[in-house]
Amino acid sequence: MTKGSNTALSALSENTGSVIVSLGWSSPAGDGDADVSVLLLGQDGKVRSDADFYFYNNPVAADGSVQLLDKTPTEDGNEDRIGFDLTAVPPEVDRMVVAASRYEGAHFGELDDLRVTLSDAVGETLLRFAVGDAGTVSAIIFGELYRRGADWKFRSVGQGYDSGLAGLATDFGVDIDDDTETAVEDMTVEDMASEDMAVEAMADSATAAAPDPAENGQPAGMPPGPAPEPDPAASLDAVPGPRRSADEDGPRKPATPTRPRTAKKKASLPVTPPKSLAENDSWKPARLFPVSALKSDRDREMRATSVLLSVMTQVPRFGRRLTAAFGAPSGRMETFTEVSLPHGDTPRRPDGVIRIERAGKLWTALVETKTNGNALRADQVQAYMDIAARRGYEAVITLSNDVALEGSPLVDVKIDRRRKHQVAMWHLSWAEVAHQAQLLIRHEGVGNAARTWLLQELLHYLQHENSGCHGFQNMGSAWVPVRNGISDETLCQGDPRALEVVESWERLVRQVCLRLGGELGQKVLPAQRARRGSDPEARRAQLADRLCVEGRLQAELRVEQAPGLLTIGADLRTGRLRTSIEIPAPEQGYPLTWAKRLVRRLAEAPADLHVETLVAGETGGPRGTLERLRPEPADMLPKGGAAITGFRLSLFKNMGSSRGNAESSFIRSVDDAVHRFYTTVMVHLDGPAARRTGARERARV
Predict the structure, then answer these.
(1) What angle do CA 115, 116, 122 make, to 5 degrees?
(2) In the chain, what percentage of residues exceed pLDDT 70?
(3) Alpha-carbon span 417 to 394, nearest angstrom
(4) pTM surpassing 0.90?
């Protein structure tokens, strides 16, 4: 796109109910960065309230319409992604502005390749806009999404602001004065590594906000003399005051722009740990969270809950990452365990309680935890839902090794719709907890070595064989009968056991996505074909019938920046797993050149990798192992000069047979197969960026 141009999203794709907008840049010095922000505007061009300003301290909309996603490192810079659910945007919002800002005198002219891209719900890049010479501006509006009737359109803007984020936000009606106080509070609570730094920050804030006695005289009601020193304990508990009304008497202090807080500096543990001082391997290091003394499931539940909740408070970014998905505000968090709450004749003791304070308001969630293969009990969860409703709490969070399925709650509870106060029920898997900890430790950091070590200890605890927090680890009692029924051809369509296996397969796939995403630092999600329908239960019923007829389970994973979908297939008749990817043929060049280049890219891939040429209008083209094709890439070309549409790369592996999580289990074999395929094959392939300048893309610009 060119500056000022616009395009309708519906003209580019059928999957624009949700889109991903990515802002990217590169830094010649390797240390340049910026913060992204989104403003939701009404027809008057102003925000409805300060809550319509989404940035590092307010990353997620309660209705899911806007979500600032993780920062993704590139070869020479960063790319920030923002998720928009256009179906959830309130009707009074007319447009959404996407911007970025720098701080401490830095400007965008110091960065190269400023760009914005937009992708649809299936990951297809729809448009790209490159911002020209940015000069000395410290904030830029990259583009905006806006309504035209029932459709959404995107306009490339590229407008710069010398006054930075404060000037940009003020132009759209954001109250920078109140946000400054909030930012100072959040920085104090979440980001300061020591009490001294907190005191220094509060002192700086007080200096910036207070009038200068030499110029304006002493503030009203303040006796002469030096200002009192800030109390660190008080600063940690500070709550911003209520917003002043427009007609409130008294002068209002001028807005004080401050440097918006950027992504925290990464602090990682050493890649190579120092040599141990132990005399032999039998000496085990002391752990912050020991697991050797755990003897019963009750012990495991109590220890796991306490460990997790305590780390959430001590590593605020980790705690915020877990609670943001539940609609919790960003604020001061405290957690409690073994709290006694009245419930009829017998008090109830939830495993944990989370309380978050924000602007004088409390958000509260009760936590019910299970470890090992223990299932959540409906009567327990129902009791906590009733208690939460009576006491005005916001949520009940269940935490177990199970993975919730789309449209299918793990426990059935009755919700009294007549109550004025409604309680939300959420589920969190231990695999998701480990995933978030791994993302912060390995890829994003928490800005403090001590907090990084705390997360590392938590992850070690979760991964220990005695913790009981290993995630989904059992295919269920139907696994063996279904596998045997497929083998001897006695499994009939409509058998409820087949549906149980399909549900277990879906849980396993979701967990595989979490583990791979944690390793890569990228989002990995299950992909759903539109032709399979949007009803999750109907889709699972179709897959169960297909399992009975074909004896196969299959899933597709969308890996960010990958050239195609990663497909996992389990053939229960042959006992084989197949991991594969289809990559499209380049839009320019010659077929022989494509074949030679692909072989060169796969120089370090396994020799038993199967390569199949995809031919237009035919069921299959030439195929062979990489070992055979390396000396003769021309063998990949179809006879008769048929048009090549792409290539399919596949690895095969024997699948495990047992239903549990042992070395020989089906779960472990699927995990290993996906990990091997990505690390030995997909890492060598070009990303989707190589396809963004094709004929269709040029036609849009």
Answers:
(1) 135
(2) 80
(3) 15
(4) no
